[in-house]
């Protein structure tokens, strides 16, 4: 998400600075989707996005406004949701609706409880513990209780980690502005191009130059703040700047504190350590035809499901081989359900936590599209897509024509992960986020400012919207510090959360 931050800060600073670019947006990576489709993957003549797919929250969301302005197609992918039991059987719709309703209501209650009782909740308490207590107050059967716990695992796809690791104390920091989540069917390409326009038009952008050191001494009483920050890259080139916006991922900051000279302030380093980093990955599997949208009327078909699913959830499958200590639940979205011309016969699987790591490690040294690569991913995916309606093992339409998987956990410039989360054990996550934003005053003292999804307003943490907001916030702070404008504080998104209003 580093490019979202850099570009939103650049857009704001460009509006405020009309003479010369004094701000350097540092993303730490060797490349950027500003100049190439590096954020996209080619899937047999189709383009899929390896970065974000969703816009979380619609009301007052700047990314949604940009999507509308650029005529990007974003929608709530409503449709049939199917749920399969650990044995691979379709769960009765009445039971499925019952447990979905319970889990949805319990998530909302957990947000509210986390927000209102934060001071009284132990840092060791997980969200799973809260749900187990809620289940004790129901009249569910043992089988229904187990299904509820299995379904709860899918909250891990949102936080990028197993739900057992999610802190209840700070679960409210996982809230979004509202309950509407829109899938960007046309991909984020036009949205990013729009946001990047100012930077591409007015900035000197350097690619394939990884940052290896940042030197920024304390300014002291010196009122001349020009050219006091020096950045050295892997090419041996040094650049000097007046102010520096660091937009690299939290994971990168965790692994590279030695880049900064003098060292970052102790309280800032501690907060970088305290906030966790997620492990969300995705796999696209394309077929010659969307067989799951065709009713086979075939008594030999392996699935008895007779409706066309948009979402499918596979609860802790006993029919799929996997490490016994790893939760193997999976969910997928049918891209065939998208409106034309964006519909494609493709399933999008999301993996997270230890399962995501296991899959990434299996393909770490394999060339994409190679036979070995395809066989590894097929062995993982086949137990799931083979239980969708219309599947026939003898039909070529049911054999994937292409598979692509992300490997963010192997990308050092992505911080070897996805985005921030708040795991069991963290004591003061809200204060840590505020520290990551402020840098413990390092901006005014040394000319280094921080932005990124991990510095976003609470309601935007871990999202592209939050990354965008953080870039604007950093740009405003610099302009105010330099005395270039008076910024109305009402323009800034605050840290209020929806659960506080309930």
Automatic annotation (TrEMBL):
Keyword field contains Cytoplasm: no
Gene Ontology molecular functions: chromatin binding; flavin adenine dinucleotide binding; oxidoreductase activity
Short name of any one Pfam family annotated for the protein: Amino_oxidase
Domain Amine oxidase: 100-478
Matching InterPro entries: Amino_oxidase, FAD/NAD-bd_sf, Flavin_monoamine_oxidase
GO biological process, one term: chromatin remodeling
Superkingdom of source: Eukaryota
Keywords for this protein: Signal
Record carries keyword Endoplasmic reticulum: no
Signal peptide interval: 1-31
Protein's name in the database: Amine oxidase domain-containing protein
């Amino acid at each position: 998400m580093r490019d979202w931050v850099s570009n939103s800060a650049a857009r704001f600073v460009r509006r405020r600075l009309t003479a010369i670019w004094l701000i350097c947006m540092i993303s730490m990576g060797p490349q950027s989707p500003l100049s190439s489709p590096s954020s996209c993957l080619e899937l047999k003549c189709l383009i899929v996005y390896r970065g974000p797919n969703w816009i979380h929250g619609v009301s007052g969301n700047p990314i949604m406004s940009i999507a509308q302005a650029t005529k990007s197609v974003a929608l709530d992918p409503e449709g049939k949701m199917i749920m399969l039991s650990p044995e691979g059987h379709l769960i009765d719709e009445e039971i499925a609706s019952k447990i979905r309703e319970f889990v949805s209501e319990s998530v909302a209650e957990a947000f509210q409880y986390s927000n209102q009782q934060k001071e009284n909740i132990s840092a060791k308490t997980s969200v799973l513990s809260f749900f187990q207590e809620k289940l004790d107050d129901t009249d569910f059967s043992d089988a229904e209780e187990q299904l509820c716990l299995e379904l709860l695992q899918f909250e891990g796809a949102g936080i990028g980690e197993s739900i057992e690791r999610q802190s209840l104390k700070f679960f409210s920091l996982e809230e979004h502005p509202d309950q509407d989540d829109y899938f960007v069917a046309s991909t984020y390409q036009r949205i990013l191009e729009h946001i990047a326009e100012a930077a591409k038009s007015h900035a000197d952008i350097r690619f394939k130059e990884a940052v290896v050191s940042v030197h920024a001494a304390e300014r002291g009483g010196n009122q001349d703040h020009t050219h006091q920050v020096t950045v050295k890259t892997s090419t041996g080139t040094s650049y000097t700047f007046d102010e520096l916006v660091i937009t690299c991922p939290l994971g990168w900051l965790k692994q590279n504190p030695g880049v900064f000279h003098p060292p970052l302030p102790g309280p800032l380093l501690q907060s970088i350590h305290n906030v966790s980093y997620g492990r969300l990955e995705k796999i696209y599997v394309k077929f010659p035809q969307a067989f799951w949208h065709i009713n086979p009327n075939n008594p030999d078909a392996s699935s008895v499901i007779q409706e066309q699913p948009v979402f499918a959830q596979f609860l802790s499958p006993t029919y799929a081989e996997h490490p016994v200590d790893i939760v193997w639940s999976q969910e997928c979205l049918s891209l065939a359900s998208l409106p034309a011309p964006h519909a494609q016969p493709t399933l999008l699987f999301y993996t997270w936590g230890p399962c995501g790591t296991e899959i990434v490690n299996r393909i770490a040294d394999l060339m994409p599209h190679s036979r070995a690569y395809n066989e590894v991913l097929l062995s993982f995916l086949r137990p799931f897509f083979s239980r969708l309606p219309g599947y026939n093992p003898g039909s070529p339409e049911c054999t994937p024509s292409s598979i692509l998987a992300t490997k963010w956990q192997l990308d050092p410039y992505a911080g070897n992960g996805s985005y921030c989360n708040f795991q069991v054990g963290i004591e003061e996550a809200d204060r840590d986020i505020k520290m990551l934003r402020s840098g413990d005053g390092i901006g005014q003292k040394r000319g280094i400012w921080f932005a990124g999804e991990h510095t976003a307003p609470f309601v935007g943490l871990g999202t592209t919207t939050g990354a965008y907001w953080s870039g604007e916030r950093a740009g405003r702070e610099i302009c105010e510090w330099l005395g270039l404008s008076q910024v109305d504080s009402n323009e800034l998104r605050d840290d209020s959360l929806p659960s506080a209003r309930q």
